[in-house]
Each structure stands twice: as C-alpha cells, then as structure tokens.
Task: structure prediction
Amino acid sequence: MLSNHLQNGIETARLVWSRLPSSEDGATAEIELPSQSRGGAGAESLDYEVIENYAYREEQAQRGKLWVSYCVVLKWLFSLLIGIGTGLAAVFINLAVENFSGWKYAATFSIIQHSYFVGFLVYILFNLGLVFTSVYIVTKFAPAAAGSGIPEIKGYLNGVDTPGILLFRTLIGKIFGSIGSVGGGLALGKEGPLVHTGACIASLLAQGGSKRYHLSSKWVRVFESDRDRRDLVTCGCAAGVAAAFRAPVGGVLFALEEVTSWWRSQLMWRVFFTSAVVAVVVRSAMNWCKSGKCGHFGSGGFIIWDISGGQEDYSFQELLPMAIIGVIGGLLGALFNQLTLFITSWRRKYLHKKGNRIKILEVCIISLVTSVISFGLPLLRRCSACPDSEMSPGIECPRPPGTDGNFVNFYCAKDREYNDLATIFFNTQDDAIRNLFSAKTFHEYSAQSLVIFLVMFYSLAVVTFGTAVPAGQFVPGIMIGSTYGRLVGMLVVKFYRKLNVEEGTYALLGAASFLGGSMRMTVSLCVIMVEITNNLKLLPLIMLVLLISKAVGDFFNKGLYEEQAQLRGIPLLESRPKLYMRNMTAKEASKNQKVVSFPRVVKVGNIVSVLRSNKHNGYPVVDQRQNGETLVIGLILRSHLLVLLQSKMDFQNSPFPCDMRGINRHNFSDFVKPVSSKGMSIEEIHLTGDELELYLDLAPFLNPSPYIVPEDMSLAKVYNLFRQLGLRHIFVVPRPSRIIGLITRKDLLIEESDHSATSELQSTSISASSSR
Result:
C-alpha cells in the first residue's frame, strides 16, 4: 500500500510539473538559502521541511495512536527537564560567580586595610586567574562557546546551523567560561550565555544525549528531525532568559520576538510551561540559600532590582526629559553596535587568525586594564561625607566593599565617608546596578563620577565584546543606560525642585533605553524590565523610552544581534522581504544558477562525481517518460545520497527502476544528520571500482512533493513562503499546462477518521487519500 502511495505521488508530480527545460534555457532552477557564499564558517541550512520519502511514510504507517501519545508526553517531559536543567545551570553559575566575587572582594578589602598596593596586586591576580581559566576553556575545549551565542541560536531557529554551537562540550564551556569571565570582573554579563546554555540543554535532550561522551539513550531519541529539535531549542532559549532575569513571561516574549522565526500555539504552551518551571527552580534555590548555605551568595546573583519603594507617580513635565533619555539611548546604542561591529571585524580579520595564544593574551590584557581602571580610578576620587542618619533613616553608611548596599568606604580618611565611584566600580555588576537603581539616595553620586564611569565602562564594554570568552550584553547595557539615566535624573531633580522625582527611576529608564537602542527589542524587553524591577507603575514610561530609542537606533543601523550574525556569515532571513524583491520574479532570481539533476536510476560513479564537483545540498531527480519527455519527480538531499553511498545496501546491477514493494532497508533515523555537526562528507566514503559501476534507484529516497513556484511569481512572495515554512529549497518551474484540482478552506476542514491520527509530533500528517 505504501509503495502505491509513493507511486501515486510520483505520477501526480508527473502530471502537475511541466517539462524540465534544457540547461541553456535556464527557466527552471532551485532557490536555496545561501550559506557559504556569504562567508559563513561552515554554516549550513537546516531541513525543516518534512521529507516524505518511502522510509518516512513506512515509519509513520507503523506508528499508532499509542506512539503518538508517547511522543506528546515525552515533549512535555522534555519541556520540564529543560526548565529544571536550565534553572540548575543558572543557579550553579550565579552561585559560583557570587562566591568568587565575594572571596575576591573580601580578600582585597582585608588586605587594603594594611597595604593598598598589595591589595591591588591580589585583586589583579584574582581577576586574571578567573579570566585566564575562562579563555583557556573556550580556546582549547569549546571554541563555539565564545560570545553570547544568541546570534548563532537565532540563526539556528531561522534555519541556519553553525557547526558546534549545540554540542555537549559547548554547554560545558559556556557554563564554566561564564563563571570565569563574569567572576573575573570583565565588562560583560552572563545573561546571553544563559540563553545559549538553555538551547544546548534542549538540543542534547532532543537528540537523546551525547554519543561522543557515551551519555545517550535510545529510549528518548525520538525527535530526530530538525523541526522537532527547533521547537525544543526555542523552549531552551526562553528558559535561559527566564533563569537569567527571573522573568518567565519575558522569556516567552523574548523567544517569540527576538530569536524564533516560526511560532504556533502548541509551542507557546510548552515554552510558557518551561519558563514557569525555571521560575520555580530559581525561587526554590534562592529560598534554600537564605539559610546561609550558599556562602557569599545573598540577595545579589539573580537579577532583581526592587524599586517598588521609589517614585510613585510622575508629572507631565517629566515626559520631556524621559523622551530625551530615549533619544540618548538610541544614539549610544547605535554607536555601540557600530563600534563593536568595527572592532570585532578587525579582531577576526587580523588578530584571531594568529592563533589561540593571541586570543588568550588579548583577553588577559583586557582583564589587566579592567582591573587597573576599576581599582585605580576610585583611588583618585575624593570621598564624600555620609548623609545624616536623621535625614535619611534606614541608610547604613558606610558599607565595606563586596557587600550588598550603597556607600562603599574605599580609600577614605574618615570612618563616616564613602567613595561614590567605588560604589559602582569596585563592586559586582548586579550590586552596582542595584545601587544605581536605589531610591531615597539623593546626591549619593556626583555628576563627575557618573560621567567618568560612563565613559570608561562604555569603552571597556565595546572592547571586551567579541573576545574569546562567553559574553552577554544585557547587564553591561543596563549598567551603561542606568548611568546616564541617573545623570538625567540628577538634572531633573535640580531643575524641578518641588517635584517628587527619584533618580533611580530615571536610571531604570536609561537602562531600558540603551537596551532598546542596541538590541532593538520592545515588547519582551519592556516586560523583562517590569519583572526585574517589580514596579508595574513604570510600564508606560518604559514603553515610551523603548519606542523612542528603537526608532532612533533603526535610523542608523540594525540591531546588535543582526549585525553580529551578519559579521559571522549567518544568512538570516528577516521578517519582511526587501522592497526590490517586489519587482523581481523567481526566474530572474535563479537565472544565474546551473541546475544539477540526477536521473531516477543513476550510476554510483556518476553520483560520486557530481558530489565531488559541487557543494549543492539538494538535487532534482528527473525521469524519462515513454514519449521522451523529461519530468521532475522529486528532490534528493545530498546528506541522503551520502547515507546511501555509505551503506551500499541499495546498489543494484540493473539500470532499470526497482520494485519498491518490500523495500525496508532503512529507517527514517538513518538519514538524520547529527545536530550542530558538519555530517558526512564524500571524502569519507570509499568505494571500489566494481561498486562505482553499479546503479542506484533514487525513487524510494527522494521527496516526491517538494515546494514549487511558477517562474513569474514575485520574489517577495517566494521570500515569505521560504521563511514562513522554514524551507531549504524551492523549485522554480514554468507555468503548468493543466490543473487537476483546487483546494479551498473547506477541503482542509476534514473530520479525523479512525485510521488517521493527527499528532503534535510532526507538522505533516499522513492520511489516506480521498477521491472526489
């Protein structure tokens, strides 16, 4: 019966598709997502389309409703495990970072009571040791763990696979590399790497573990298509944001707005469930740590800056300075994107080509400069007198460095003094942001100190981004934005003397504006900022500055992740086609491509010759009719051809089509490419001279129903079809000479029969064909 279905599919293709023109005609071509052409380092398109070949149809026919139910349950179980795994990874990273930072500042503060120079050396060596550990792990063990990982994950969910980004060693390198780079005091954060960490955990679960390290199980290895893995990786991305910011709703919206290119209601439920699980795990860990079992881990670590006790209301007069904050955020965010793009491009072109030693040396030098600036600049600032305890009740001044709170005593001659620059410089980034967001702390910072910190930290963040360590830009962006936001707040307090204005509120708006101007997120970022500050009253103001900063930033360049993806050679398909595509046809877009096709029954030697002579990933398969017509009958993937050549089980002596009844030599899993790997290459396959003279019938292994478009369809429509369906190839064909039917909405609303099971497992279900 299955062979009849496949034969009917081939016959239908013969009826619908027109004659394949000669190579000189050039009217029929194959539109394929470019990868190598843009300089991508091994980037390859993913096969999100279901390949309905004979092995797939046979495997689907053998699976009943019990199997479908098992797969649905397993998906929800994986969603639970992704949430638990990502939450535990976030707990471990935050626990390690907070303890390393606590030990560092405690040791430094204890030593500087006797000698600031010795304390300075200890501080530098502590940071250098952590950073060296991070860069050594990345360069020697997991090169794909460098950076935030968000551009690569965004490319994966857009349909482009970069080798190595979702491997087990990348996960390990991301976790321990983040601990070293963030604990070492570099101007970067751990939030972006947590998104990558969640995606790695999801991918490893989807493929049943890691075969290389013997951590796999065949019982959970059921989600073998790129489409199923994509859904789980989306859950992992949302879990990473939820774990980083304790913002489960923001995590869902981040996955929807920023990284994924394909969305559906069933996926929304699982992503929301995963984020909720993360929130429970993180909250449970924090409650457990309150008993003092986590060392230096206290109210810091997990980001939540509660400013609910700050400004209760705002006046119409304040909208102008708030709008100015949005403009500043757009300008500084666009400048940040451009500078990081230029420096990263120069670094990759000239510096990183010289080997891993240069990468390690570069990061160590940046660590040394960062330590000198963060320790040395506060020494040059005069200390300020603590505020009057009667005028400011509840404020403890001073506090020693390394503890949670404001008013750090650093190089001060008197006991009742504090160093405002050390409060934000000689501190962890989370605690520094909490200090900048703090309410009821008027005149805590001088404008001069904030300007110095803004210039220096902005420069350090630009230089540090792109180095060979795991690096996120969320927290550095919040640091930069909250600094100039607090500056504007100080000016507003000085100008509007009678208004109840909180400088911490303007610091929050500045943080939102810089992130909006750099990353160009709106809805998800707005919700994240509300969740991490626990102040819903500021929602309209955050919306205002985000809209302004994004509009200003879009005027100059693309968002940070889009710029970095383009630099890495990841060919992202944006949400909308370019304007010029409306005036181009599919034929014009594919006219420069040479179509390389195979006959249905082809000699093995010819397959090897074609695969070695070009790098195409898909080939049309043609068949000769009795009247001499050449018709396209399907599409065969390069990876499938390599599997057939490697197995050698389907070679035949006859140059005629085989009888597909009874063929059951392959499972659908045999054709699955391992995730984030380059897969098999033609150079790895060794065939004898006699085997090269044998034949191979491609009909049982091809996709008999790939997507096709007429040659005069606008390229804009082709673009939307390609992106929204997650395709890898589209055939461009001449106008068909006849039509065999018309499908309307009513034809798609078919009642489910007893023999056809709809499933969440696959987007395309196999049902019995009906005649009408």
Summary: DSSP finds 26 helices and 14 strands in the chain.
